[in-house]
């Protein structure tokens, strides 16, 4: 039994909850080391107080689950099976009943919830999210090593993107060059859809790359990340293509100052809300508060966006082992946008910045 499962089983015992059913790909991966994208098919993990856990997955994925190190029971179903009937039989054979079941309330759909109520007709259902978030919040040394590697590859990818900037080359062309070079390095999947945004598009926090052409005098914003061994990185850098205006320079330097101030404030015990305020105050004092419309950052790990939110009002304290992003931005229509993002690991007395691509304003000639 792995340590993560043991901790979760201990929590079930403490809460007097007889069973838990996890269904999201990230949480199943966290508990089993088995990554599966089931699409419309069922993926689930039953965990009990003392009995052996049960993994439910498509039969065609069984070998991959074993290769990932899962040694416990698997219910593998074909496309003609009804997995819920197979689950019911196993539960009956094991004499498993439950009056309290923990589920992922934010993930489980109504159809599957109804199927669970048939399996456990007398049960009350409780949230498993908070406990799993707590477990995933603090990264161990193995996780940190993977996150360092993923951050290093994100740095490499931004470098490729900067080198690919050329007059009249489109956002999508630059994006394709980045991802092609990453494939050659063995990266099979990005953390999210890569963003390469220039000109007016750079002022859209979640803009969509397209046929927009690179031209001198504009910002070029890169927001990307890679997945390595199931863990994500996430970096944003903004560069100037040719000479830019005084206002564009002021915007860039304001964002950088805000980000550096937030990073400087990071240490165990400081609240997440205070980190947000550290960056936001710099941007507001420069007159751009209304142009910073999003939280300062988010947790990072198996999911590219996970707990915690680095935002005003979150008074949870920083703890050693947490990993999250710090990514202030200013987005001014008809001028352009700047975002600078790093992946931050909280140490016992401060931070380790995992992403290391230079942040001082770069000019691409």
Automatic annotation (TrEMBL):
One family name in Pfam for this protein: Peptidase_M24
Broadest EC class assigned to this enzyme: hydrolase
InterPro entries: Creatin/AminoP/Spt16_N (IPR029149), Creatinase/aminopeptidase-like (IPR036005), Creatinase_N (IPR000587), Pept_M24 (IPR000994), Pept_M24_MAP (IPR001714), Peptidase_M24B (IPR050659), Peptidase_M24B_aminopep-P_CS (IPR001131)
E.C. number(s) listed in UniProt: 3.4.13.9
Domain Peptidase M24: 147-348
SUPFAM superfamilies linked: Creatinase/aminopeptidase, Creatinase/prolidase N-terminal domain
Keyword set, alphabetical order: Dipeptidase, Hydrolase, Manganese, Metal-binding, Protease
Organism encoding this protein: Bacillus cytotoxicus
Coiled-coil spans in chain: none
Sequence similarity: Belongs to the peptidase M24B family.
GO molecular function per UniProt: aminopeptidase activity; metal ion binding; metalloexopeptidase activity; proline dipeptidase activity
Cofactor section: Mn(2+)
The name this protein goes by in its record: X-Pro dipeptidase
Domain Creatinase N-terminal: 4-138
